[in-house]
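Hey all, sorry for the wall of text incoming. These are the two entities for the joint prediction.
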Amino acid sequence: MGHLDLDREDPGSLQASAPRRTEGIRAAGLTKSFKAPQGIVRAVRGIDLTIPIGQTMALLGPNGAGKSTTIDMMLGLSAPDAGSVSVLGGTPQEAVDAGLVSAMLQAGALIRDVNVRELVGMVAALYPRPMAVGDVLELVGIADLGARRTQKLSGGQTQRVRLAVALVADPQLLILDEPTVAMDVEGRHGFWAAMRAFTARGRTVIFATHYLEEADDNADRIVLMAHGQIVADGAPTEIKARVGRRTIRATLVDVAPERLRDLPGVAAVDRHGDTVSLNCTDSDAAIRALLGAYPAAHHIEIAGAGLEEAFLELTGDEDVPAVGEAA
Amino acid sequence: MIAFAYTRFEFVRMFRNPRFLIFSIGFPLILFFAIAAPNRNVRSFNGSGISFPLYYMVGLAAFGTMAGMIATGARIANERTTGWTRQLRITPLSTRAYFRAKILTAYVTALLTIALLYLAGVSLGVSMPARDWLEMTGLILIALLPFAALGIFLGHLVTTDSMGPAIGGGTSLFAFLGGTWFPLGSHGFLHDLGQLLPSYWLVQAAHLAVGGHPWHAMAWAVIAVWTAVLSVGAAFAYRRDTKRV
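and here's what came out:
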């Protein structure tokens, strides 16, 4: 996976003092709690994680899993209560100061009264080796919006400008916190196309999401978080097999549930009146077999299991309530 | 280079925000004309020997610049709410460069307010020796230092919702107790209290040309202490202000 991009020597940056960087991020025992109106929220409870340079990693989890809090600590925006995190061989703040890291934080507005080109251009000027502003706008598909005032952009356009603000740094490590949350389907496609162009350059990317599909399509590795802990960590195919179950619902009379359970790809069967629900590990195989054996099945729906349900299954019914993603 | 890019950006934004300009620069000017124009021919305000327009020109220069400095906080609070401040924190822009840009833009606004009020004053017949204009301006700019720090302090401490009351209350209190609206006299509780406030010396600086107390050691000490304390407060508020708001 991508070459290790260590050939860019920034005089005066970290490199002089830091050991040779082979790790993008190393977190050990990372822990963080907040005071909230509901009481103490233990947002992150002991995370150990090593992310090699060049990897694209998805931090997948439902709201309140602790993704944003973890990201804040990786960026030096908040200090862990316990444990530590190093970024590209130094502290998060060192990496930020050296211009090695940039991020698109969770949904937010842009600053007003400037146009897109001015905004992205100012941010570019803060970094030692920025990309050309025109190239970045082109990359994220807003080359025609350079002269537009930031307060006159649509939601999807705003997200792209926010991505441009993060990308223009041309960082070694890019962190995206639920980057597509305000986008429609088309916007998402455009967004990830732009991201792939970026990751093709061998950069390390971490993105938080609560869409399994998004993680599956765009990451080399998925780290699954729930209740402030890592509950699974592996290749997308592994994770998908664990949480990516689908349900087939159909109207089908006079067939015993036991016989449906014997169909390939089916893990469990429920019947409510004339409606059957098949919980499937492989819904493609199951639907073929179902229609082959029982052509009378109709009103068929296939739905992906919600992540929340998948997490409940995976983590067991945990003691802890998921209090909102820490304000 | 970095600092320059960000400072220029701040200037561009400020001058494109008509509301901010109207309230910071326009408001003192309108107030001045409203108060002074009808009385432009009063050559001796309350028998003081000071012309009416001169008295209010310097008074509103003190008040308008002080209010403008503190109002920087509203801009900062707004930037925090949009998440922009957090975004800026994860760039290599240093805290020092960030503060410098904020303070510089605030000072340019203050200078504009002062310049326009001077012009307005001259249009109503105010005249002073060049030396007085300069000395007064210099002392006003120095006396604004604690208010620049106060603006940043409030901006990083208070949320957008409570910013209005914080700014309005803070400005009114400092203005009232500093003797902006009426002279505090030369003794008594209000006078003694006023002397400990930076706004008192700001007003005195502005009134220098019209017979105010010149700055002695205490004035410099009061300004220095307030500047130091509020700067530490501002730096502290900025450091702890990393949460999502």
